[in-house]
Specification:
It is built from 14 helices and 20 strands. It is an alpha/beta fold. The chain folds into 2 domains: about 160 residues, FAD/NAD(P)-binding domain, CATH 3.50.50.60; about 200 residues, Polyamine Oxidase, Chain A, domain 2. The longest helix is centred in the last third of the chain and has 19 residues. It comes from Methylophaga muralis.
């Protein structure tokens, strides 16, 4: 079959790689590079050329089995990285790094701070009690409601749990409390984040994440066309017609591996089901800067971590996240390379190396409901949808989504189709 793939993020790339073994596959990418959130930049710092990731950075083999298998097939190597987490509160001045006791109490005054001990007590309590929610089936309960009902302290919520969630999902603090509690806790449970021990070894791709993109493109017969946004997708009995740069191109099937809102804008005549399902998934735009301004890291170097979250001076202000790339990618340079989200107002413009915008899914009850309806929009008029947003938004979810679409396409070839 002739199959079009729209979007060259992890889901589109994985779809193309596996389908091109048996089909004629063409991938259309709107931007001028392949990879989507896999975004590696070659920068020169202190006279040294370095490859620095600014989108997808880390994974682990335990929770990313299909992505790890893809790397193995491609012959792409990875290396272990040190994962650590810090919080700086711009209003209270609190700073801590959760790596070890010395860094946890890098501000020695916290040894005599009852509120700090309350945060630690609630942290242990949350790790112990939260998994019990998985035995219940209450999707309507939000994370914010769960924390209030169970009397968790403000310092635990605002100076630990919300910053942690913001770092994981690149989301503003206000949206985190709207996460379905069951969904949030299941993610943390599945990723062994509700335990102080036996956590998985996190890894980074050697030479930058773009290494796997380059290897994939070399090892597939799929055709990749960048700088080519799809303007319209028309569906008919015989297949689909894509309009790209004003030119119409015909295919048997189309896989839309772009975000849900982007997919809707491409469809010439979306069905009521597509509008209902895709239109209920929202995305948050995040502004990214790769820079060398150490003011975005905690004031105390003992608190510097892989993930550094700054809590704004007002509760209504979203958390800002800064990833310390020297630590994450084992970069050998005297300059501190930092990836910060939504922090333009805090960064010295002269120290900015790269500026990008990314969009991340917002996880609320509406998104969760749409995820459960994926089958309803599968093979509607020869159209399939995949993307990490159908799961938790991570690289493994992107690969899983691609594999699910591939299975659905195989079923249509066997005569099992969605005729809704």
């Amino acid at each position: 079959m002739k199959i079009a793939v729209v979007g060259a993020g992890i889901s589109g790339l994985a779809s193309a790689y596996y389908l091109a073994k048996h089909h004629d596959v063409t991938v259309f990418e709107a931007s001028n590079y392949l990879g989507g959130h896999t975004d590696t930049h070659s920068v020169e710092v202190a006279g040294k050329a370095l490859n620095v990731d600014t989108g997808f950075i880390v994974f682990n083999e335990q929770n990313y089995p299909n992505f790890s298998q893809l790397l193995t097939e491609l012959g792409v190597e990875s290396q272990p990285t040190a994962m650590s987490f810090s919080v700086s509160n711009a209003k209270s001045g609190l700073e801590y790094n959760a790596t070890d006791l010395n860094k946890l109490f890098c501000q020695r005054r916290n040894l005599f701070n009852p509120r700090f001990y309350r945060m630690l007590w609630d942290l242990v309590r949350f790790y112990r009690e939260a998994p019990s929610l998985l035995e219940e089936n209450d999707d309507g309960l939000t994370l914010g409601q769960y924390l209030t009902i169970n009397n968790y302290s403000d310092i635990f919520i605002n100076d630990h749990l919300i910053p942690m969630a913001c770092a994981l999902w690149s989301g503003p603090s206000l949206s985190v409390v709207d996460f379905p509690a069951h969904y949030f806790i299941r993610f943390m449970h599945n990723h062994h984040m509700l335990s102080l021990t036996n956590r998985p070894q996190w890894r980074v791709v050697k030479g930058g994440s773009k290494s796997y993109v380059d290897a994939l493109v070399r090892q597939t017969d799929a055709e990749f066309i960048t700088g080519s946004p799809v303007q319209r997708i028309e569906r008919h009995l015989q297949g689909v017609t894509l309009t790209v740069h004003g030119e119409k191109r015909h295919f048997d099937k189309v896989i839309i591996a772009a975000h849900a809102d982007q997919a809707l804008r491409m469809l010439d005549q979306p069905s009521e089901t597509e509008v209902a399902v895709l239109g209920s998934i929202d995305f948050q735009e995040n502004e990214m800067h790769l820079h060398t301004d150490i003011r975005l890291l905690p004031k105390n170097p003992q608190a510097w971590a892989s993930w550094n979250v700054r809590v704004g001076p007002e509760l209504q202000q979203q958390c800002t996240v800064s990833y310390h790339m020297n630590t994450l990618q084992s970069l050998t340079t005297s300059e501190q390379l930092i990836v910060s989200l939504n922090s333009a107002h805090l960064i010295d413009p002269k120290k900015v190396l790269v500026h990008r915008h990314y969009a991340h899914p917002i996880y609320n009850q509406s998104t969760l409901n749409s995820q459960r309806r994926w089958q309803e929009v599968t093979d509607l008029q020869h159209t399939f949808y995949c993307g990490a947003y159908w799961g938790w938004g991570f690289h493994e979810d992107g690969v899983n989504s691609a594999l699910r679409v591939i299975q659905a396409i195989e079923q249509t070839q066997q005569g099992v189709a969605n005729v809704a």
